[in-house]
């Protein structure tokens, strides 16, 4: 089968198309992959900068969508079913993958393979961050950084269905504002000077929740943008720098900084992903939550697809087409 392989750790351009053996079923669900999602960890993995370091060579890709080729009788899916699946951190960018049944999910008919390949990783993270860690309540306002990225567009799509009455998207350029608006943002502000813009938009009250996949030097202004009882959800550090918190700010303003590490949570809560999908799947099927509208790259350009996240040119979620 054709697959993307990374054999050296000098960045996204190391990602090459190769021919390798198909995996055996061996008690797993075998899936003919139509598309694979690209996420920020793929760029970090290509440089050996992620906390998880697979042996070389490895196939990148944390999530896929495709058609079941074969499945164990008790897996809940059968040959021919349209599914999305999580490899979690590597193995997805290949024409065939074998996944344990608990990481395979039936795709609603109205969600394309490309959209399906781009939704699990981010939507489940955002659902976890807003619902479980962020305690999002009905009528609250959510601000999201990196709003035209994967986690960002996912937040904009999901937050209203989870209760938010307003979403404020923070992007670095006007060009990215359109992506955030298309994903459903109520308001879009530029990263440069976002604190003052948020103050004005909220009449000085501040927001209830900040979703932060960026970190870096925006962190303190994010804390300052929270209203009383607000929560800042730490999701990632695409900005590179890991910020520090002066805890007197938390005390003075009664705000929380909350870690939201979805992968680690799923390891300590084995039924959690199923429970999440039981809530998300009907929202997608009914259209209450729109499917992602990803940028699709052909397999031959997987390296460019991964690079787009590293060099900040990605517009929305990025996926690679396998078929
Ligand atoms: N906590 C969890 O469980 C979990 C799960 C999944 C992903 N993550 C993390 O979430 C983060 C976002 O992932 P993603 O897939 O959404 O990435 P993405 O699609 O590349 O989006 C990230 C956004 O970060 C912004 N950014 C700011 N400074 C940047 C820089 N120096 N380089 C690149 N981007 C920069 C960009 O928006 P602007 O240009 O508009 O600023 C970009 O749109 C990553 O750190 C990832 O590891 C965490």
TrEMBL record:
Keyword match Oxidoreductase: yes
UniProt keyword Ribonucleoprotein present: no
UniProt EC number: 1.-.-.-
InterPro entries with a match to the protein in the record: ADH-like_C (IPR013149), ADH-like_N (IPR013154), ER (IPR020843), GroES-like_sf (IPR011032), NAD(P)-bd_dom_sf (IPR036291), Zn-ADH-like_protein (IPR051397)
UniProt entry keywords in alphabetical sequence: Oxidoreductase
TM stretches of this protein: none
Enoyl reductase (ER) domain residues: 7-320
Enzyme superclass (EC): oxidoreductase
Molecular-function GO terms, alphabetical: oxidoreductase activity
Superkingdom of origin: Bacteria
PANTHER family: QUINONE OXIDOREDUCTASE-LIKE PROTEIN 2 (PTHR43677:SF4), SHORT-CHAIN DEHYDROGENASE/REDUCTASE (PTHR43677)
Protein name: NADPH:quinone oxidoreductase family protein
């Amino acid at each position: 089968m054709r697959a993307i392989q990374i054999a050296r750790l000098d960045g996204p351009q190391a990602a090459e198309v190769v021919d390798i053996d198909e995996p055996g079923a061996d008690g797993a669900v075998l899936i003919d992959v139509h598309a694979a999602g690209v996420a920020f960890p793929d760029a970090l993995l290509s440089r050996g900068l992620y906390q998880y370091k697979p042996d070389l060579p490895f196939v990148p890709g944390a999530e896929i969508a495709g058609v079941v080729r074969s499945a164990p009788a008790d897996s809940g899916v059968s040959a021919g079913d349209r599914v999305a699946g999580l490899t979690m951190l590597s193995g997805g960018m290949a024409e065939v993958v074998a996944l344990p049944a608990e990481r395979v999910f039936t795709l609603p008919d109205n969600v394309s393979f490309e959209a399906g390949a781009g939704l699990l990783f981010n939507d489940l993270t955002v659902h976890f961050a807003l619902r479980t860690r962020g305690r999002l309540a009905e009528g609250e306002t959510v601000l999201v950084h990196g709003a035209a990225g994967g986690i960002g567009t996912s937040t904009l799509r999901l937050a209203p269905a989870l209760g938010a009455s307003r979403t404020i998207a923070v992007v670095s350029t006007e060009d990215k504002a359109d992506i955030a608006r298309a994903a459903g943002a109520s308001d879009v502000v530029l990263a440069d000077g976002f604190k003052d813009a948020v103050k004005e938009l909220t009449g000085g009250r501040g927001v209830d929740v900040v979703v932060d996949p960026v970190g870096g030097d925006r962190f303190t202004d994010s804390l300052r943008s929270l209203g009383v009882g607000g929560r800042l959800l730490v999701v990632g550090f695409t900005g590179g720098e890991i910020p520090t918190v002066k805890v007197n700010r938390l005390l003075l303003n009664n705000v929380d900084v909350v870690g939201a590490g979805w992968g680690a949570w799923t390891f300590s809560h084995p039924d959690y992903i199923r429970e999440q999908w039981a809530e998300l799947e009907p929202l997608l099927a009914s259209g209450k939550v729109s499917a992602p509208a990803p940028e699709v790259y052909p397999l031959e350009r997987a390296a460019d697809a991964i690079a787009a996240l590293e060099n900040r040119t990605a517009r929305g979620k990025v996926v690679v087409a396998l078929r």
